[in-house]
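Protein Record: Sequence and Backbone Structure Tokens
======================================================
Scope: a single protein chain, as residues and as a discrete description of its fold.
Tokens: labelled as protein backbone structure tokens, with as many entries as the chain has residues.
Position: the record begins directly beneath this header, with no further notes in between.
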Amino acid sequence: MNAEDPGTAGRRQRFAEEARAERPDLALLCLLLGAEASPPAPGDADPYGVDAAQIELDRLAGLLPYGARDARSWASALAELLGERCGFAGSSHDYQRLDSSVLQQVLRRRRGLPILLSVVWIEVARRAGAPVFGVALPGHYVVGFGDPAERVLADPFTGGAPLSGEDAELMVTGATGQRLEPSMLVPARPLETVLRILNNIRTWAAARPERTDVALWALELSLLLPSHPARLRYERAQLLVQRGEFLRGAAEMDEYAEIVDGIEPTAAEAIRHRAQAARALLN
């Protein structure tokens, strides 16, 4: 945690509580996540832009035409508003920017990764009463409207271009070499979406060794989710050692070894040896 930011503990507690709510608020979780990446503005009543971002989502929803419509009409209305009028879209350059994974910045710049642009679409559409859901295709997150059994898909990254079943098949095959499976089209749950965003941030940080600070907060938020891969605890311990926090990292390696011991005792012993090596770095 950032010692210069006394609000970090409270913000993370709020994140953890929301993640464990009966119906987690996707927008709030993404905004609390984004607050980790944005330095606070001293004296500002809304230092991380959380409230301002919620207001902007409400404003955008209010610009949608009023009245019930079918799934295809909803998709067209969102594409016309967000893609055409407001210019929300993405490009290959957005994959190089951390703020492409920060909802506050995506709302401001109107640029981002497919998953963050999809979050904007989902949250604007949801506020307007649309039957909307996220679709976590491998390699490219998109948005669905209507009954999941008769879904209408759109790609916010391209401004809201409609996606046929063949388009989705080509997208998945091009990104992963896999065939499109029906399970890939199941509506994504909010916590799955948040974990995928955090994984994207960790991937971004892994390519930039000087940004271990980003990797650390992304790991720590991932560990606050009620369901997360156990190996993330070991990754955090390794990262602490990499950052020079040898004792903390070694202690967490020992804790993880205790968890692994009953399943893979050989792996647990190897982890304990790494903990000893980390402590030796203090000498």
Remarks:
- Residues 190-206 form the longest helix (17 residues).
- The CA atoms of residues 34 and 102 lie 5 Å apart.
